[in-house]
Structures are given as structure tokens and as C-alpha cells.
Amino acid sequence: MGRGKNFLKMERLKLRYYPDAVLRKKAEKIKNFDAEIRSLAQEMISVMQEAKGVGLAGNQVGKLKRIVVIGIIPEILEEPLVLLNPEIKKMEGSLVEEEGCLSFPGVSASVRRHLMVRANFRNLAGEKMQIDAKGTLARIIQHEMDHLNGVLYPDRLSFFARKKLLRDYRQKRKTVSLTAEKKI
């Protein structure tokens, strides 16, 4: 039976949650800067905004492509930013701050990150770009680029802090699952 033209349309992207195996995979470099990648970027921005996130990497929606979207940050970014094939070229300083992740809803932890980063990337037209980021934006770029390499923020914690975060996360997931089952 035919499914029509819409069959080839991109399925609605869904957030992937730990322990989904796609979160541990390394994303592949983007070679074609075409309508498909622009559509993926727009869809990722929508998913990120709906989830009230500040950043999202391809892995987090099941796409193993080196794409990062970053949301509006008052006084820093006036519109969402899309980084294709990002690479950090320079890092300075460090700061420990609280960090969360859309793939680990309901938990957060203090993570050490570089205070400033310089990243090279391609924009949606495939043009080479560079960004010097500090503070919150630098933190988001590092966090999302970790995702592209299969690294999750609990990996950056001490053994005991990671163990506690994962225990808290599993407990929250169990509570959410039980609550959802009771409503059915």
C-alpha cells in the first residue's frame, strides 16, 4: 500500500534519555549543508524550546550528526545559534557551576568547565565561522560538544558524585513511571 509523499518526511524528533545507547555514540561529521540539515536544525530548536532547554546536540534526538543548537540567552544570544561540525580550538580558565541536561531530567550537579572557549564551526550555509564564548555560553558549547563525542555530564563528576546523581536520576524516573502508570 502506498504511503504518499509524506512518508519520506522527517518523523517528529523525540528527546532521548539516559541510558539510551545513542547518547554514548560519537556523532558523524556533516558533509552536506542542505535543506535536510536546515530542517533538522529547526526541528531541534523546537524540541529544545518545548523542553525549556538551553542547548541540544544531535545525539539527544537520536541523530548521530555533529549538530548543536543553542537557545536564546538574554544579553548574550538574541536568536538561536546552530553549530555544525563544531571544534574547540582554545580554552581558558575554569569554573565549577551547577549543570543539568535534557537527557537527565530532574537532576543536576556541579561540573568543572572551561570559563572561555574558542570554537570553529560551520553555519547552515556551510560557511566557516568562529565564536569566542565565555561564561554560560562557553559552558553550553562544551556540554553539547561532549554529547557529540558520546560523553555525558555525569562522566565529568567524581566517582561518588556520579554515583549519587545516577541514583537520584533512577529514583526520579521510577517515581515518574509509577505516577504515569497510576493515571492510566
UniProtKB/TrEMBL annotation:
Q: What is its EC number?
A: 3.5.1.88
Catalytic residues (UniProt): 144
Give the top-level enzyme category.
hydrolase
- Which catalysed reactions does the entry list for this protein? N-terminal N-formyl-L-methionyl-[peptide] + H2O = N-terminal L-methionyl-[peptide] + formate
- Which cofactors must be present for this protein to function? Fe(2+)
Checking CDD domains in the record gives:
Pep_deformylase (cd00487)
One of its Pfam families is Pep_deformylase
The residues that hold Fe cation are 101, 143, 147
Spell out the PANTHER family in the cross-references: PEPTIDE DEFORMYLASE
Record function comment: Removes the formyl group from the N-terminal Met of newly synthesized proteins. Requires at least a dipeptide for an efficient rate of reaction. N-terminal L-methionine is a prerequisite for activity but the enzyme has broad specificity at other positions.
Q: Sorted alphabetically, which HAMAP family does this protein's record hold?
A: Pep_deformylase
Q: What is the protein's name according to its record?
A: Peptide deformylase
Source organism per UniProt: bacterium (Candidatus Ratteibacteria) CG23_combo_of_CG06-09_8_20_14_all_48_7
